[in-house]
């Protein structure tokens, strides 16, 4: 015959004064039977005897050398700085200190200041092979700041040098996926992509990349000459097309003007006078201008006028 019972389990941990962590597991059955397990583990956060003795001696030194010890115990960090304190190699609780005044114990406490202001640096020129097999030299400017001082000190040995090396590598990787035309015309998109890649990689270090700008793109001399020749040929072709279009428009305008002059003969005479006025404004010593014979018809006899041709003569 089988017997069933409902089990109830309790589990918990608590710190003891001896610096150990005690964990227990209790199992209860509704039939009245129960069993318990107790596990003792050392607390990694608890200070050992040596650490306690060193802390006591440091406090004793502060008391003996008072008030001169205050000059070494009290530190000040600026508004844009934070201090990360270590006591005998362990990170102190409470996070980064600052801004303002904080207290450290001599001989056992060490601290590092972290600047929270935005820092900029130039990425050295990188020889990059684009996707269309063109070698170019590109340099950039990166702006970053520290958003987590604890991670910047604990998780990376030198966040500044690491960020610089990562920026140079990211610049080569991003530009290697672009053509030369995209590199020259779409710098903003390349900057945003590089910023996103850098920010994602430096986030565990407590570093935030705020902005990336492509500073300069240097092409080989032979490629510059080829591109200049191509651009010059393109401009000449466009100039010829524009000149041809201008000739077409001018010919149409002349055609319309000739039709107006045929309908009104005096318009041709006014055009002669306008041309003469334009030439005389240049202060030339000799002016050759065709004079229409129609102006002399009123001064000639009717018989003589019939023998005179109507072609203009130079005066």
UniProtKB/TrEMBL annotation:
GO terms for cellular component: plasma membrane. Pfam families: Band_7. Belongs to the band 7/mec-2 family. It is found in: Membrane. Residues 72-231 form the Band domain. PANTHER family: AT06885P-RELATED, BAND 7 PROTEIN-RELATED. Keywords: Membrane. This is Band 7 domain-containing protein.
């Amino acid at each position: 015959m089988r017997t069933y019972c409902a089990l109830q389990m309790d589990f918990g941990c608590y710190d003891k004064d001896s610096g150990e962590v005690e964990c227990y597991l209790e199992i209860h059955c509704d039939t009245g039977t129960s069993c318990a397990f107790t596990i003792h583990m050392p607390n990694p956060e608890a200070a050992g005897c040596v650490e306690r003795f060193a802390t006591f001696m440091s406090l004793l030194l502060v008391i003996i050398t008072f008030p001169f010890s205050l000059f070494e115990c009290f530190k000040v960090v600026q508004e844009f700085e934070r201090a990360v304190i270590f006591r005998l190699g362990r990170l102190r609780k409470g996070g980064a200190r600052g801004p303002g005044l904080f207290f450290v114990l001599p001989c056992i406490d060490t601290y590092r200041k972290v600047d929270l202001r935005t820092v900029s640096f130039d990425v050295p020129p990188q020889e990059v092979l684009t996707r269309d097999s063109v070698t170019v030299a590109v340099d950039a400017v990166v702006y970053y700041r520290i958003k987590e001082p604890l991670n910047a000190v604990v998780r990376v040995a030198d966040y500044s040098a690491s960020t610089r090396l990562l920026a140079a590598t990211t610049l080569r990787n991003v530009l290697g996926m672009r053509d030369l035309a995209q590199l020259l015309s779409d710098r903003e998109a390349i900057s945003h992509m590089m910023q996103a890649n850098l920010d994602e990689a430096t986030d565990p270090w407590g570093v935030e990349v705020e902005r990336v700008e492509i500073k300069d793109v240097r092409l080989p001399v032979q490629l510059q000459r080829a591109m200049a020749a191509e651009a010059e040929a393109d401009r000449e072709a466009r100039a010829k097309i524009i000149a041809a279009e201008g000739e077409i428009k001018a010919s149409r305008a002349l055609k319309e003007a000739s039709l107006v002059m045929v309908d009104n003969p005096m318009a041709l005479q006014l055009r002669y006078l306008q041309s003469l006025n334009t030439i005389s404004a240049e202060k030339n010593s000799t002016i050759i201008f065709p004079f229409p014979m129609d102006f002399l018809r009123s001064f000639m006899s009717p018989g003589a006028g019939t023998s005179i041709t109507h072609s203009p003569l130079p005066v």
